[in-house]
Amino acid sequence: MQLASDQYASGEQPEPLLRGPASIDGEYVVLDRGRASEWHPFVKADGIGRGDAIIELAASGSTPAQALKFVEGFGLLRKGSESADWRELLSVFQREASALLSGLSLYRDVRRASQDPGLLPRLREKWLHLGAPRAGLTFTEHAAVAVSALVTRGLVGVEERVLPVSNERELAFVSAARTPHLLGHIYHQFAIVMTGNVALRTCEDPACGRFFTPGDARQRHCSKAHADRMRQQRSRAARREGNQRRDDQSAT
Ligand SMILES: [Zn+2]
After folding, report:
1. Of the candidates 35, 48, 40, 252, the residue with the CA atom closest to the CA atom of residue 161
2. What's the structural domain count of the chain?
3. Residue 96 counted as domain residue
4. Mind listing the pLDDT tens digit for each residue in 179-201?
5. Of the chain's two ends, which shows fewer C-beta atoms within 10 Å, N or C?
6. Neighbouring residues of 90: CB distance < 8 A, sequence distance ≥ 6
């Protein structure tokens, strides 16, 4: 999808974000401003940064190496065109990544529990720290209020925009945003996932488990690589079982 950049006034265009090589300096992750490049979060681009910042941030978080990879692909979280420096505390990065992951899990669990009330006891147990619901609210509603409040807080300073985009076949429109920083864009993506009822799944590859938005209803893995890996494992397991059965038969 390409931005139809000639077709709207430049004043309406959200400012680009910065991403690029970074390094660790003590407690900070530092973007190399001289080698950084601009990118538009509402345009799907090839190469580095491909994928959704929201999903990549939720999957990062615990190690400095993951922070560096994320900054290379998407940029620092709370820095924008107004910023005087291009460094961010690693602890900020880790805290935001874990808050986002927890928000996405809560959103997924609320959606599941609202479709299948049998999951409610597990939801209640997992999200004990949300406390007891206000009078008149079910626990699922209480959890829905909590995740809405979390995303609303993340949207502070974000201005909604509508932009024309085109692919080879047609012209369409996307909900874009003028955001003070990358984190604002990420919460704007979160709001679109929630309000657009976009499905959010976790990869069924046990070694992965990251969130993804399925391209079609049957997709069970975040990537083709993980779908292939699981298929190989299943067929190896089936072969082993087959061999086992033959061995058992020849033994009798
Ligand atoms: Zn995966």
Report:
1. 40
2. 1
3. yes
4. 889 999 999 989 988 988 777 88
5. C
6. 24, 27, 28, 29, 64, 67
CA of 8 to the centre of ligand 1 (A): 38
* Alpha-carbon radius of gyration of the chain: 22
In a domain, 59, yes or no: yes
pTM of the predicted protein model: 0.82
Q: How far is ligand 1, taken at its centre, from the CA of residue 132, in Å?
A: 34
Domain extent for 87:
2-198
Question: How far is Cα 71 from Cα 64, in angstroms, rounded to an integer?
Answer: 11
In a domain, 112, yes or no: yes
212-251 tens-digit pLDDT: 888 787 889 988 999 999 999 989 988 888 887 777 776 6
Report the pLDDT value the prediction gives residue 170, as an integer from 0 to 100.
Answer: 80
Closest CA to 179 of 14, 1, 62, 19: 14
Q: How far is the CA of 225 from the centre of ligand 1 (A)?
A: 8
> From ligand 1's centre to the CA of 207, what distance in Å?
7
Q: How far is the CA of 203 from the centre of ligand 1 (A)?
A: 5
